[in-house]
Amino acid sequence: MSATASDQSDAADSGPVLAADGTPLKKSLNRALRxxxxxxxxxxxxxxxxxxxxxxAPIGDMLFRSVExxxxxxxxxxxARVLEDWDGESDLPPPATFEALxxxxxxxxxxxxxxxLGTRLNYEQTGLSSLFRSSGRGVDDxxxxxxxxxxxxxxxxxxxxxxxxxxQGNGDSDRALLLDQRARLAALAGExxxxxxxxxxxxxxxxxxxxxxxxYTAFALFTVIEDEDVVAEEEPWESVYTAxxxxxRTADLSLYSGPGAAELTRAxxxxxxxxxxxxxxxxxxxxxxxxxxxxxxxxxxxxxxxxTGYFLNAVDMQKTTDGPxxxxxxxxxxxxxxxxTLFMSLMITFSCILLxxxxxxxxxxxxMRSANMLMILVLLPFWTSLLVRTSAWKIMLQQQGVINxxxxxxxxxGDDARLxxxxxxxxxxxxxTHILLPFMILPMYSVMSTIxxxxxxxxxSLGATNWTAFWxxxxxxxxxxxxxxxxxxFILAIGYYITPEIVGGTTGxxxxxxxxxxxxxxxxxxxxxxxxxxxFAVVLVLYWAxxxxxxxxxxxxx
Amino acid sequence: xxxxxxxxYDGGEDAFVAFEHxxxxxxxxxxxxxxxxxTMPKGEFLTMLGPSGSGKTTCLMMLAGFETATHGEIxxxxxxxxxxxxxxxxxxxxxxxxxxxxxxxIAENLAFPLEVRKLGKAEREQKVRRALDMVQMGEFGSRRPxxxxxxxQQRVALARALVFEPELVLMDEPLGALDKQLREHMQxxxxxxxxxxxxxxxxxxxxxxxxLTMSDRVAVxxxxxxxxxxxxxxxxxxxxxxxxxxxxxxxNTLAGRIKSMRGEDVTVELDTGEIVAAKAVNVTxxxxxxxxxxxxxxxxxxxxxxxxxxxxxxxxxxxxxxxGDIFRTRLRVAGRDDFIIKTxxxxxxxxxxxxxxxxxxWLPRDCRALDA
Lengths: 558, 372
Prior knowledge:
Chain A is mainly α. Chain A has helices at 3-14, 25-64, 70-75, 77-85, 95-110, 114-122, 128-138, 144-153, 160-168, 175-189, 203-208, 210-226, 238-248, 261-271, 279-286, 293-301, 309-314, 334-365, 368-379, 386-397, 402-410, 425-448, 453-461, 466-494, 498-503, 511-520, 525-549, and strands spanning 317-320, 323-326.
């Protein structure tokens, strides 16, 4: 070893190894490799971007839907906030809840969003969909008497310009409220509520009549941006009048001198003679379900932004006021479906192993020419539509189908006792075994063709019979192929949709069919996402277990 | 003369391994092995040597039972084994790629032949240990084949082929994958083991040095036939035909025609006109085309040393290569410029210069007239 070399190794003992120019060797190595890495990245970039956009992102979004529940707090935000403070002990929430629900529902009905919330909550409790739909119409009538009184008192209250002046005020304007309302509407309607609306609420009036200012601002935003009208020319919504009535019950007008001060004072005096609006009673009149405790329990349970409800549903449980509990016996379907999916996938994997092993063995032991010929036969099904192959099995297996006809003709089966082989588990297992068989043969074949003949020969020369040579020497070396094929087939099977849909009937359907149902028919995407997430997790857990038991290094695809 | 040694066993009652008129064809059109006759006594180390495609490996596989003879009979200990499956033949075999079972440890690999013979556990362990010690691999019993070097795997493969004490061991180019130094070492070990244990060994190789250093007898294969079956020294010094002469060791050939023939002594007129005396090997009479063969180390540049019988010829030095222990000189002789001579690097040895014209000579008995 030369002097310099030993110096370097000394340096290595005391600190990081340095390159010739004194920079740490690691850094200098990284710099040298960076260009290479960037070039490699550039090569895979198109695929990476495609996969991210077309695969990872949509799947992530879909999985997120399994817990996402912002529709409640977006549609009826004030109600959700009030319900947070309700302990759920009393049968009904405090009266303020009904008032909040009135304003929320009124705006939601204007934006035509209340029915969506109804649909969402209907997943949890039947009947809520129609309750919300009818209530969206009913809220217009709340506080009708008070509104009539105002309009009779002074025709100004029916004038759009007067309202505009009153709400605009003369002094400073309250931009914070405007921003709040923009956000509220954006969350509700799912679109942007930006842009000039020719109105800003006055600071004085916001302090004096907070609810009125809030509802008027919402009305103004909606009128300009959604309806594309001019605020100063539109008469406000009923909810603005109702808010004014409520505000005037407590407002102290003595110090107010802005626009409409006189009208407000007169209105306050006149309204004092009428009884206050009873929102609870008003809702009871719209639909008496509103004073039924389960409705409010459900709304409170599902008002947080994120919920475990979909996942609980997916495992046959439900949220109750006492925490999660199992659904009644007759309503449990998903556990059965999951168990059936796992069981049938295992059956399919197992029958694929049994059928594929001899074929792969034969293929790997034939001369190249004949092996290639047979390989084409194995791959042939890939060139036929999946739908065609599945439908072909329907023709083969049905009671008036080819197999039954042959069996009857042979006299093995009576004409009145034709076998039921389709629209049940048996049919699904047969058809899917056939469809997934190539995925088992290919990895097996590629592993088997790498096992040199000399191993079996060596075993025989050492005194092993054909069977012993196969079982003790050949078979253990082909296990990686079985493993690879099994993982492939099992994971494909567990998420299979088309074949069970066509030949599965009612007893042979998979969880994937239920997921598809929720995606395309019931439109309960949250539940579909929860079911999908569980399926995904099951696959990952099985993969992990397989890695622990067999070792993923033992899986070879070639 | 070349059959003398072999005749001692031919048809003998003590022939342990015998091929009788064995033929083999894979496609029904061409014969890979053409009429093979071979007998081996017990304890012999016989090497099948030949270029690839010469049929040597096929012969080995037929003996092991992995190929069936198309015609003829293969006997082991006097009994025909044509219809006995490989696992009942009790023949140890070492494969080219060792064929150690990768999913078993070394000890399990060695125990395998004992297990299938239903030996008890204690006896198995004892035999495995002894076999591993025999190849100095005692500490490696618990390793997997992939954790061993090529040379170590080679030893294990050897131990596995010997652990069940077969009387006949076949080796199919077992040292082909090793580097030169290791190969030479293993050659030595294998021959020692085989002789110590008194095992009959059939060894297949295409490496002539290996064949010459290891074997009692070498069977040179070409074109599906045994060209010559003889002990190494005879094979080298008295090749039976020009293929063997060319294949074994380095050889100078000069083409010509037999001028006259008296007993074993022939005179050959080379194509360039020179007359040389040679010993007849497989030529029949005057007028026949012949290849005269002389080993490079039998050619002298100091013709004085050879005595009066010496055959001398003029040569021009084309190339002089210093190789350390020897000098290798390429000459132009009788119109051919690939005539090689090897001279020992002794203190008094002259170093030839390129372009120098010298006289070289050899003894007529070292010059053999072979078939053309």
